[in-house]
Amino acid sequence: MKIANVIVDIPAMQTDKYFDYRIPEKWETAIQPGMRVIVPFGPRTIQGFVAGIKDRSEVKNLREIIAPQDLAPVLNAELLALGDWLAKETLCLKISAYQAMLPAAMKAKYEKRIKRQDGGANPFLDEVFKGHDEISWKEAQQKGFLPFLQKEAKNGSVEVVYEVKSKANKKTVRLIFCPLSKDELEKRMEEVPKNAPKQKQVLQFFLENPDAKMASPELAETAGVSRAVIKTLLEKGWLEEKQEESYRDPYAGRQFQKSVPHALTAEQKQAIGPVLSAVRENRNETFLLFGVTGSGKTEIYLQSIQEVLNQGKEAIVLVPEISLTPQMVNRFKSRFGKDVAVLHSGLSVGEKYDEWRKITRKEAKVVVGARSAIFAPLENLGIIIIDEEHENSYKQEDNPRYHARDVALFRSKNHHCPVILGSATPSLESFARAQKGVYTLLKMGKRMNNHPLPEVSIVDMREELRAGNRSMFSRELFEKLKDRLEKKQQTVLLLNKRGYSSFVMCRDCGYVQQCPNCDISLTYHRSTNEMKCHYCGYETFVPATCPECGSSHIRYFGTGTQKVEEELGRLLPEAHVIRMDVDTTGHKGAHERMLQSFANGEADILLGTQMIAKGLDFPNITLVGVLNADTMLHLPDFRASEKTFQLLTQVSGRAGRHQLEGEVVVQTYTPEHYSIQFAGEQDYERFYRQEMRMRKVGAYPPFYYLTLITVSHENVMKAMSAAEKIAGFMRNRVSGGSVILGPSACPVPRVKNRYRYQCLIKYKREPRLNETLSVLLEHFQHQIASEGLSIAVDVNPNMMM
Ligand code: ADP
Ligand code: ZN
Ligand code: ZN
């Protein structure tokens, strides 16, 4: 007897364990670990994953698997193990971990149906079922039968069944081919009536292309005939049609010019050397490729992948969602052609599924994609590359709360392969690891075009105000904008939108209120008109005048892109502006279209939020303006300075990437802040040293680890009291060196009518933390299930909101 350990598709803690099911004899050899199966569960029929197979079970009255849902495992042994690891590390349910690794199309959809069980004895049911055995739930509902049927269900005359539906549908096309041999074809050519030269034309085509297989419209066009002609030939049986599975290829019809490897510069050669030898020696080593923007990092990725392919292996390249532009995809497709599969959120569910299947069939060897592409089911990985490794989007903010970098390191150990983390502004954590020798540091300090990095000018907006300029453009930026318009060169204007209106600042001296205990900006809460620290819970009133200089120009800070656009229209009516923000890029492909039109020179100014900071590589951009460098600086987040430095460095890198030299103007109310100063000098390493000192003093990462527990409930008292219990529970169980902060209200204290409280654990070494957290979750299980309490645990949180 064979027994399967099954993880069922019910996202609840009570069911987060293996359930034993007997494998029916006929499927004993067919059902394997990693396959999806349909199983009975209580009165329902649901989907599950076979996690393992064994010979005996302690359970009496074992139920049987109803049917397998796959012909081959969808999760191989490595991914199953990865799922278990994810569940443990991020404290998520196994089912969530498994589902996160698969394309959305493979998530089960259930259809409820009502089945007649009375054997025809109850005449009242005849009217409902009309001679059928079952009807759909939807139909019963629409026709108003439900109340009646619910009564009947109680006495057993009807039963509700859940049918598992697979959303994944494969797309097929009808292709036309010629079944005739050459001799036969030639014979038929002579039989074609004189008045039908078009038919002859088609046969001639197949004579020249005996293996051709095409959809009818395509064939008609290629052979230069109408579709009626093809129909006639099909009727004669000289051509035949067949159904063939086709992939939805989002890049179909695009031409990718073949690109050849560049001869590497001396600096590139030095950087790539250790990577190539790690690839050749199957060495699990992590490289931090620290190279300024435009130093040729992508070329290093491409040539490392080439070596991996030469070894008969495969590669994963992660790129932040927002930089997965056609430009970026082109660089990989034009080097590796059909070997490349692309996975990103712009694809439809079906397209993603098709790309995934291409990978499982080993038709793609290089996977380029956003965060979840780290789960690509490649079985012979030779390298994993994470470009812009410092990007926030590599951390999933929802269950499972994993960081793609951690998954990459885990998988690279399984495959004995190297990892490259690339960035011009590495995360502090990664750079610190490189300093300690955990990662191997590879440095590239020169830009490809040998131009220096663009000149950055920092403008003090307080001075502007003093000089009577109340506009959102400083005099310097405005002069440069006009100059670029005259020269017909392009400008990128960045409005730093994050943190908008959430802090209070003095317009005269730049003062921003800080928490006395935490060295972090206080957040303005509109509902109560108070300033709060969301780390420790400190509260204070909103000052009417600046405590620093006494000015009354103290207020919330921020402007929207729309307002900037209006002001541009007023000041520079002749300028063509493209505005890019969440409002204007909502439609599929809008982002891409806007960039394309800017690339085509259809606008002088590209105005946008964070989303324009990356991936732009246009020769005619010679000016970058940052309207408000500070906003992010005052976010209640210990990474505020790091994020500001990264953003300013990234956006500065957009200017002067080609022949023309670039300039950058950064407008700020806090020009003396080190992250703005060092971004202006483009000096990452000095920024790193200064920021490390701050982190050490504040006991933040990379000196300490963090785990954030967020509690929410519709009732504010329940949320608060649960948070207090949790803080107490943890305080009693962590070691002496660890600190528990809170509970305090979250910076966004209510979301969808749920009140939120949080509690932060800071620790250096807490080897049993995950176990303790599991116990905690179990402890509150009842309240979670029946009282609507929710507890989210985020290990190494990225967002403190
Ligand atoms: P990064 O990824 O570091 O920003 P890129 O890889 O985009 O830099 O390189 C910048 C430009 O230099 C690209 O247009 C690229 O094609 C080009 N490039 C890279 N390496 C070489 C090389 N060895 N020789 C000539 N051009 C190169
Ligand atoms: Zn002031
Ligand atoms: Zn505080």
TrEMBL record:
Chain positions recorded as Zn(2+) 1 binding sites: C506, C509, C546, C549
SMART domains per UniProt: DEXDc, HELICc
Reactions listed under catalytic activity: ATP + H2O = ADP + phosphate + H(+); Couples ATP hydrolysis with the unwinding of duplex DNA by translocating in the 3'-5' direction
UniProtKB keywords: ATP-binding, DNA replication, DNA-binding, Helicase, Hydrolase, Isomerase, Metal-binding, Nucleotide-binding, Primosome, Zinc
Domain Helicase ATP-binding: 278-444
Keyword Nucleotidyltransferase: no
Assigned EC number: 5.6.2.4
Domain Helicase C-terminal intervals: 541-698
Cross-referenced InterPro entries: DEAD/DEAH_box_helicase_dom (IPR011545), Helicase_ATP-bd (IPR014001), Helicase_C-like (IPR001650), P-loop_NTPase (IPR027417), PriA (IPR005259), PriA_3primeBD (IPR041222), PriA_3primeBD_sf (IPR042115), PriA_C (IPR041236)
GO CC field: primosome complex
Cofactor binding note of this UniProt entry: Binds 2 zinc ions per subunit.
Domain of life: Bacteria
Pfam families linked to this entry: DEAD, Helicase_C, PriA_3primeBD, PriA_C, Zn_ribbon_PriA
Keyword DNA-binding in record: yes
Family: Belongs to the helicase family. PriA subfamily.
Record function comment: Initiates the restart of stalled replication forks, which reloads the replicative helicase on sites other than the origin of replication. Recognizes and binds to abandoned replication forks and remodels them to uncover a helicase loading site. Promotes assembly of the primosome at these replication forks.
PANTHER family the record matches: PRIMOSOMAL PROTEIN N (PTHR30580:SF0)
Quaternary structure (record): Component of the replication restart primosome.
Name recorded for this polypeptide: Replication restart protein PriA
Organism of derivation: Heyndrickxia coagulans
